[in-house]
Specification:
The protein has about 270 residues and is α+β, with helices and mostly antiparallel strands. It contains seven helices and 13 strands. It has helices at about 5-15, 20-25, 45-55, 110-115, 135-140, 155-165, 240-245, and strands at about 15-20, 35-40, 60, 85-95, 100-105, 125, 130-135, 180-185, 190-195, 205-210, 220-225, 235, 250-255. The strands form two sheets. It has an eight-stranded mixed beta sheet. Strands 8, 10, 11, 12 and 13 form a five-stranded antiparallel beta sheet that branches.
Length: about 270
């Protein structure tokens, strides 16, 4: 696929590339069996469908009832596997060379979905302007991985896969730089600007990581805030969510994750 066309479509749709391909970009290691995964908000996912059709990819339904005509408008149920709570639908496409690309339609926004991944090693993404790793020191300096606290079966299998690839679970990762409020694009991120694209740094999302008492898992605290005037939603930390709840603003808290005091939406 032509890079410029893909990046322009990603910019218009708000899509990002994540998963093994984004990890391969930062680690400089190619995983032969890896697929290309696009994460995209529901209102713009058809832009990526048209892009893949243009480059010769065809939709491969995973069931007889799966069609691209069914708009993924319903939020997913409360899955025990946290990763699935942030995804509405997954569509698979292949070309004549049997290359697989998946379009993952997110429930809220792509940042929230990435923060809901099974562990820190895959919290990386490639946007239309930047490649961003959220926990580069843990992932690429110490070469350790930190899983989320409540893993489903698929998440446990994924942890084992990345352990075999050289990222064992961190034994004592309780660094002050981990347990603090983080901002997308802050100095703890690793940002690589695409040479032909804008140098504007992404902003607007924040979160807080809490490491468990046994220091071998963590939770990422954040709330989803929205406004009726915009389709975009943002991840914010507890302080910002509390301020929004108590102030007279057009923003409202739509959902909270791992924040007991903010469990109920307005």
């Amino acid at each position: 696929m032509h890079n410029t066309v893909v990046l322009r479509t990603m910019a218009k749709s708000g899509a990002v590339i994540s998963g093994s391909m984004a990890l391969a970009f930062f680690s400089r290691r190619v995983y032969v069996s890896s697929d290309l995964n696009f994460y995209v908000p529901a209102p713009t996912f058809m832009m990526l469908v048209h892009l893949l059709h243009f480059f010769g990819y065809i939709h491969v339904p995973r069931s007889e009832s799966e069609t691209l005509d069914t708009f993924p408008s319903m939020l997913p149920p409360e899955y025990p596997d946290e990763e699935q709570q942030h995804i509405r639908a997954v569509y698979s496409f292949v070309n004549s060379d049997a290359c697989l690309i998946q379009i993952i339609v997110v429930a809220w926004n792509v940042i929230d979905t990435i923060l809901g991944f099974h562990s820190t090693i895959v919290m990386n993404m490639i946007t239309s302007t930047h490649a961003i790793s959220l926990y580069p020191y843990l992932s690429f300096i110490t070469r350790r991985n930190l899983p989320i606290r409540h893993l489903g079966i698929s998440g446990t299998e994924a942890i084992e896969k990345y352990t075999e690839r050289g990222w064992p679970v961190a034994v004592q990762p309780a660094s002050p730089t981990l347990q603090r409020i983080r901002l997308l694009g802050d100095r703890s991120c690793w940002l690589v600007t695409h040479s032909l694209c804008s140098r504007q740094i992404p902003f607007g999302h924040s979160w807080y990581m809490e490491i468990s008492d046994d220091v071998d898992s963590m939770s990422i605290h954040r709330s989803i805030v929205k406004t009726s005037h915009m389709r975009t939603s943002f991840c914010v930390d507890g302080d910002i969510a509390a301020y929004i709840r108590q102030s007279d603003t057009p923003w409202y808290v739509a959902r909270s994750f791992h924040m007991p005091s903010l469990d109920k939406s307005d």
